[in-house]
Amino acid sequence: MELWLGIVLIIVALIAGVALGFFIARRYMMNYLKKNPPINEQMLRTMMMQMGQKPSQKKINQMMRAMNNQIK
Question: Can you give the residue ranges of every domain in the chain?
Answer without folding.
Answer: 1-36, 39-72
